[in-house]
Amino acid sequence: MSINKDFQPPRSSGHSVPRKFKFGWLLVAAVVLLGGVSLFWLWNSSGSTPEACKTPAVAVAPTTSVPLSPALPVTVALPHHQEIKQIVPDGSSISALLGDYFTSQEIFDLNRQSRKVFPFTKICAGHSYQISAVDGKLDSFVYEIDPSEQLVISRDGDQIKMERRPIVYDVTTELVQGTIKSSLFEAVAEIGERPELTIMLADIFAWDVDFILDIRSGDTFQALVEKRSRDGKAAGYGHILAAEFVNQNRVFKAVRFKDGKQSPSYYNEKGENVRKAFLRAPLSFSRISSGYTMHRFHPILKSWKSHPAIDYVAPVGTPIKTVGDGTIYRIGYTRANGNFIEVRHSNGYSSIYLHMKALARGLKKGRRVSQGQVIGYLGSTGLATGPHLCFRMRHNGAPVNPARIKVPAARSVSKKNLTEFKRMADPLLARLDENRARVRVARLDAAEVSSVTGKNLK
Asked: Would residue 371 count as lying in a domain?
């Protein structure tokens, strides 16, 4: 058989594929198609990409946790506060007190500013002051002018404020009472009160009671007095609201009242002013060494001379008060009188004060003085054998005995305010009356017990 006998060339240029192989490829293609459709359906139904279709994750090397070092504490500079509480020393000045906080020019400006508020020249030794500073810069300066007022210098930004402020106290009212055995001073001290209360009582009754000549053992006193405190500490007395003094069985009463625009004064139960034209004496407490007489042997001149005066003996430096309102007529020094002042009063009266150790500051001829104002201090200048005050009074130029002058009282409570005075005074005086009656009963009971006990002992 010829080689070309069975040979049948293809109808196209490609080779023919056997039927078996064609059927096999069709089967594979169908399987692949079916699998792809299945995968597509699963992917869409699950809403997520199958694991095989996900982008392979990039391998990341594990990180090591490194602890942070603790933060360093932040240092905040706190302001440095400084408080100084002192007493103004002798010879001090505002420059010495505030020189660490102000320049010389600033202190000069402050001094000029103070003239309208409280002149720095009036700052006195012995008064307390307080300085508050922050980081060496003055915050405030507080000076105690007196028991009722302060001078306050404070910083408000770059401005310096200066003002007078009233001192605020905690105040309670108490009833105090005592009986005199030898002196008012001792009686007040015996009940545990301070000497200031003695002066206050004497000032109220000075027109009716001579605390040198009139006091007797057994005299009594009582008062409704304001007691003040600051920061929980006792700070002296406020006002005496009402008081009573029994001297040789004579009862004197006084109630503090402000009559309209008048300054507060003391009035008795009838509304009459207890203040008279003249004080009974120019010194509150002393003794009389020589009385008023027209025939006395002068210890220095060694001759008999008139002594139309009263000599008061007291410690050197005791304050001397003018006995009434008036004008200084003469003031100065003479060989015989020493340091002296003559004050002219109304109605032709004048008072003379001799042998003083020193005169009060700021006094000169023609200056007005008020009743009770300190005009000098007891001494022994001029012809004097020892420290004393020679006190004289004249009426129309003629000498008169100061102890026998009878003068009218100051103005009574006005009719307009008399009802208000009664409304305020009556309960205060009733309280004093009740207490006096209670004390009297207690004394009678004690005397009766003592009498019975004494009889039983016999």
From this structure: yes
